[in-house]
Amino acid sequence: MPFVEPEPKIFSCRQSLYLAEKIAEAYGQPLGKVSISTFSDGEFQPSFEESIRGSRVFLIGSTFPDSDNLMELLLFIDAAKRASARHITAVIPYFGWARQDRKDKPRVPIAAKLVANLLQAAGATRIITMDLHADQIQGFFEKPVDHLFASTLFLPYLKNLELENLTIASPDMGGSKRAYAYSKFLESEVVICYKQRKKANVISLMELIGDVNGRNVVLVDDMVDTAGTLVKAAEVMMEKGALSVRAVCTHALLSGSAYEKIESSKLTELIVSDSIPLRKESPKIKVLSTAHLFADVMKRVHSNTSISSKFLM
């Protein structure tokens, strides 16, 4: 008899359960049963509560801080390997530790490479992720990586706003490629912010390259952490005559006083994905769900069909 690939099984780490439930619903399949035992010292032990022998397993878990989130995903992958899963796909909507993708000064780690090694050593046979901080992180893996773009959600949303005199902006030099990709699709102009930092998360200087006078500006970035860059950029652009400033950021880390900064800022709107759960709602933050995107790609991966149509940029 020919081998028939069994239906895939979808499981979730605790930190991404809110998103995994939506992905499973979009996929048309219930989440698999798991349990997690916790010892008094904080150590925890994940367990699959159903057979996964010979199955394709999708494990959903973003790896934002704290490090327990990464550790939980690694333990689930190891458990799946030892339970004889046929394929183990780590679905990581937000790939954490990615800002450390190179040595930018002596005697520092390359954390993104270390995390890639850990995922592979644990037993992951494929990675599905979205908007890596640096595209070259895909090269840290020896396993297939499906690198998705949240632009497939953001670009239709922006187009439906029908903003006149639209200008796409990059909040730094490193994001210029992303800004140009958005501008090409939206047929708009581009400006770039030049910033200098004396230390992490603190901007010492910001200047604007380009003209925003009389323009509706949309800043695009892969993540928003303290929101200092976005708030400062919006302030500079409004001073330069912009009509409005919005921001599109895939991963809403929003640490520290980020919510307060955004709500008191010149930003009209911050548009984010649900790759990371919001700590609280805000009238200025619009969340677009990635559930259907991930569910569709997971189906295509399982059926070995192309996912090229999922890339708008």
Outline the fold blueprint:
Elements: E1 9-12, H1 17-27, E2 34-38, E3 44-48, E4 56-60, H2 68-82, E5 87-92, H3 111-122, E6 126-130, E7 145-148, H4 151-161, E8 166-170, H5 176-186, E9 189-199, E10 202-209, E11 216-224, H6 228-239, E12 244-252, H7 258-263, E13 269-273, E14 285-288, H8 291-302
Parallel strand pairs: 1-4, 4-5, 5-6, 6-7, 8-9, 8-11, 11-12, 12-13, 13-14
Antiparallel strand pairs: 2-3, 9-10
Helix pairs in contact: 1-8
Radius of gyration based on Cα positions = 20 Å
Helix content: 25-40%
Number of helices in the DSSP assignment: 8
In percent terms, what proportion of residues is strand?
25-35%
SS-based class: alpha/beta
Mean pLDDT: 94
Q: What is the straight-line distance between the termini? A: 43 Å
Query: How would you describe the shape?
Result: globular
Major sheet: 7 strands, mixed
Low-pLDDT stretches are none
- The string of secondary-structure elements, in order, is EHEEEHEHEEHEHEEEHEHEEH
What is the topology, as strand order, of the major beta sheet?
10-9-8-11-12-13-14
Q: What would you say this structure looks like, in words?
A:
The protein is 29% helix and 27% strand. The chain is an alpha/beta fold. Strands 10-9-8-11-12-13-14 form a seven-stranded mixed β-sheet, sandwiched between helices. Strands 1-4-5-6-7 form a five-stranded parallel β-sheet, sandwiched between helices. A two-stranded antiparallel ribbon has the order 2-3.
In short:
The chain is an alpha/beta fold. It is 29% helix and 27% strand. It is globular, with a radius of gyration of 20 Å.
